[in-house]
Amino acid sequence: MPAVIAPDWLSRCATQVAPDLLGCVLVRQLPSGEILRGVIVETEAYTPGDPACHAYRRRTPRNAVMFGPAGWAYVYLIYGMYHCFNVVTDLDGVPSAVLVRALELDRLPPGLDLGRHKLHRVAAGPGKLCRALQIDLSLTVTPLAPGQGLWLEGRSPTFQTQLDAGQISFVQTTRIGLTQGADRPWRWYVAESKAVSRR
User: Is 107 exposed, middle or buried (0-12, 13-18, 19+ CB in 10 A)?
Assistant: First the structure.
């Protein structure tokens, strides 16, 4: 079993952490005790001085967790209906985070019906992955650690071996759905993954 990712590994600039999170695993322990896992296949970085970052203008009750130490969850709501999950990064006092945009799930989460969809599309987008893993505002300002409902695990040896051998590759490109800071190439995804939200 890959090791749980510690806060000090996340205490770097979001633009360094975001590509390094590809291939790592987001683990969700549901209130029932059931555990779901998804391989992270798409991320976006947000840093201080970035007009697209939620902490760009000032500290607020909503974004305050971004100003704290690394290794905490920042969850917010968009369009009044979709949740987005972020990993707080960098040093204490430096507001930055990585948005996890897509996961490859190991199995279908409880209560979800595939219908016409395929398993690899169930968590192909930030709103979709939060719905699939039952991530909502109750999990924001939560430390990413076992026993807290959410945590991160490192890449599997298989993934790392394939990456080292060139069988898996990463693409770096611009972020999606932004009106400001849209030109910054701070989105990364696994080229071979069918779960990436958009290419």
Answer: exposed
User: How does 29-44 read in b/e, with b if 16+ C-beta sit within 10 Å?
Assistant: beeeeeebebbbbbbb
Q: Minimal CA–CA distance to 126: which of 106, 98, 149?
A: 98
CB of 87 within 8 A of CB of 144?
A: yes
pLDDT digits (tens, 9 = 90+) for 12-68: 999 999 999 999 999 999 999 999 999 999 999 999 988 888 877 778 888 899 999
Confidence (pLDDT) at 87: 98
State the Cα–Cα distance between residues 175 and 52, nearest whole angstrom: 10
Nearest Cα residue to 42 out of 135, 136, 129: 129
pLDDT in tens, 99-118: 999 999 988 888 777 676 68
One-letter identity of residue 176: I
Phi, psi of 126 (to 5 degrees): -60, -40
Q: Indicate yes or no: pTM above 0.90.
A: yes
Residue by residue, DSSP assigns 42-86 as EEEEE-TT-TTSTTSS---TTTGGGGS-SSEEEEEEETTTEEEEE
